[in-house]
């Protein structure tokens, strides 16, 4: 299950951004590093992309506005 994104769920000195494709990433403002995983839960945040257990590691399934699926590595 993907983590829920609320500003109050982020640790101190963390913020988040959204890529053009809608994926959410997290920024550690102290170390100036980023991650796709929520810093508290270690899980990705649901942003219209899905990580499926039947896909190879590192692959995600995304969906177009029309609902067609596509795969992202």
TrEMBL record:
Transmembrane segments: none
InterPro entries in alphabetical order: WW_dom, WW_dom_sf
Ranges where the WW domain occurs: 8-41, 53-73
Signal sequence extent: none
UniProt cross-references to PANTHER family, sorted A to Z: PHOSPHOINOSITOL 3-PHOSPHATE-BINDING PROTEIN (PTHR12752), PLECKSTRIN HOMOLOGY DOMAIN-CONTAINING FAMILY A MEMBER 7 (PTHR12752:SF4)
Protein name: WW domain-containing protein
Taxonomic lineage: Eukaryota, Metazoa, Chordata, Craniata, Vertebrata
């Amino acid at each position: 299950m993907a983590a829920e994104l609320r500003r109050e769920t982020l640790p101190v000195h963390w913020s988040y951004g959204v890529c053009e494709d809608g994926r959410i990433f997290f920024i550690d403002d102290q170390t100036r590093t980023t991650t796709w995983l929520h810093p508290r839960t270690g899980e990705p945040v649901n942003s219209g992309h899905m990580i499926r257990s039947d896909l190879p590691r590192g692959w995600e399934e995304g969906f177009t506005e029309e609902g067609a699926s596509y795969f992202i590595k």
